[in-house]
Amino acid sequence: MNLNTLSLINYKNFDSQTFEFDSKINCFVGANGVGKTNVLDAIYHLSFGKSYFNPIATQNIKHDEDFFVVDGVFEKEDRTEKIVVSLKKGQKKLIKRNGKPYEKFSDHIGFIPLVMISPADRDLIIEGSETRRKFIDSVISQSDKNYLNNLINYNKVLSQRNALLKYFALNNTFNAQTLQVYNEQLQTYGTEIFNTRHVFLETFIPIFKQRYDAISNNKEDVSLSYKSDLFDNDLNTLLKENINKDKALQYTSVGIHKDDLNFEIDTFPIKKFGSQGQQKSFLVALKLAQFDFIKQQSGVPPILLLDDIFDKLDENRVAQIIELVDNKHFGQLFISDTHADRTENVVKQTHQSYKIFKL
Ligand SMILES: Nc1ncnc2c1ncn2[C@@H]1O[C@H](COP(=O)(O)OP(=O)(O)OP(=O)(O)O)[C@@H](O)[C@H]1O
């Protein structure tokens, strides 16, 4: 699967621009702030219908304009697929495939498999557990529609249960039966989500370790493990056990919405004890494992976006990453870098066709 053409109108710092891409490697080079990351984010929009960096959709419209259009022409299994994402201020965002708007954006997820590796991934290490759950969810959702539906349903019931707990507290009342209806629904959706995450991580963790060992040349031992309340008991029992706590807090304190991943290096948390280069290697390994997993599930290599990934990595690690890219396992690649020479040297070594865009 390839992105052949990308056209932007009023997207962030671009007013009107069209790119014709190489089917293998495309590099965007230029000084800080010229828009290299913005082009990658536009490509991300075509896969996920939203920005990787800015959750406020209207802030992706060029300043002083009132709409943006991101238009991509892909080649997928010998067919041409035109994806257009557009947003006008005051209106709902539109995602169209070959001219036909999607009613539910979730139907588009997975159609253009894509993985972004960016310095912003550091949030996965430094931020709270929600960021790591979102990561797991986005990896699984790209190949499992049922999972995405369970997640949507779980979150709906969870907010209803939380609203009910608030209502009880405000009105000084309690009704165990109504609460039980929600508990049972959470149990149904939550158990499926837990099982899917568990099975997914059993496949994913060994892939991740392999990737890390290759990047670091087996220099350090890293581990990734799954933390969930549901390892202790079934969700219905846990909800019942924690009812007094939930009444006091006025929200649901146990469930798969509290799941987390532990990231460790040589048995210590990587957040506190990993160097910047080790943390970056960890994140790159995590994302390359995401790439491998999606490829395994969908049979096609996802588009890979590498935003500024060479900084902070020593030459050996950069060489390792490029060696990984330098084989048939990968599909189309987009790279952004401030150092034009470094990028050109690196991509030349891969002996693949490439295009360099100087922004
Ligand atoms: N909505 C917007 N309207 C106009 N310009 C915007 C908008 N959002 C971001 N920008 C501009 O985009 C530029 C940043 O672009 P981008 O992050 O792609 O830079 P970059 O080339 O990747 O730089 P670096 O090398 O520093 O990572 C900034 O100049 C910023 O002001």
CATH superfamily of the largest domain: P-loop containing nucleotide triphosphate hydrolases
| Succession of helices and strands | EEEHEEEEEHHHHEHHEEHHEHEHE
Provide the number of structural domains.
2
* Low-pLDDT segments: none
Structural class: alpha/beta
CATH architecture of the largest domain: 3-Layer(aba) Sandwich
Biggest sheet details = 6 strands, antiparallel
Side-by-side strand order of the widest sheet: 2-1-4-5-6-7
Overall mean confidence score, pLDDT:
92
Helix content: 40-55%
Number of DSSP E strands: 14
Q: Give the distance, in angstroms, between the N- and C-terminal Cα atoms.
A: 25 Å
Annotated CATH topology of the largest domain: Rossmann fold
User: How large is the radius of gyration?
Assistant: 22 Å
- Determine the strand fraction and express it as a percent band: 15-25%
Overview of the molecule:
With 359 residues, this protein is α/β, with parallel strands linked by helices. The protein has 2 domains: 1-113 and 300-359, P-loop containing nucleotide triphosphate hydrolases (Rossmann fold, 3-Layer(aba) Sandwich); 128-298, Glutathione S-transferase Yfyf (Class Pi), Chain A, domain 2, CATH 1.20.1050. Helices cover 44% and strands 23% of the residues. The protein contains 11 helices and 14 strands. It has helices spanning 36-48, 123-126, 129-141, 145-171, 176-216, 235-241, 243-249, 270-273, 276-298, 315-325, 340-348, and strands at residues 2-11, 14-20, 25-29, 67-76, 79-88, 94-97, 100-101, 114-117, 222-227, 260-265, 268-269, 303-307, 333-337, 354-358. A 6-stranded antiparallel β-sheet has the order 2-1-4-5-6-7, covered by helices on one side. Helix 5 crosses helix 6 and helix 5 packs across helix 9. The longest helix has 41 residues, at 176-216. 34% of the residues are buried. The mean pLDDT is 92. Bound molecules: adenosine-5'-triphosphate.
